[in-house]
Design a protein that fits this description.
Blueprint: H1 5-16, H2 22-31, E1 36-41, E2 51-52, E3 56-62, E4 69-71, E5 79-84
Parallel strand pairs: 1-5
Antiparallel strand pairs: 2-3, 3-4, 3-5
Amino acid sequence: MALPTEQLIEIERLLATTEAGTSAVADLRRRFPQLTWVLCDASDVTEEPFRRLAWFDLHLIDGSDQCILITADQARATGLALARRNVGR
């Protein structure tokens, strides 16, 4: 299951207008229940982000196997890891 570009654009728009609160993740989970969502601190992720936003680094995740992996392949993405950055602190 690929992450459609249209959904990714909408997700990026939503995250660009919000601060780094956990309510953003809850809203995304409600809007896109078919996707897997992971919220973590940016310091917990060593891979380069797929996208950088004001408050979050976005990492595509592939959950098609038993383990969740970070992927750069949008066609394999089944969700997103939102790595929260400490902006302005």
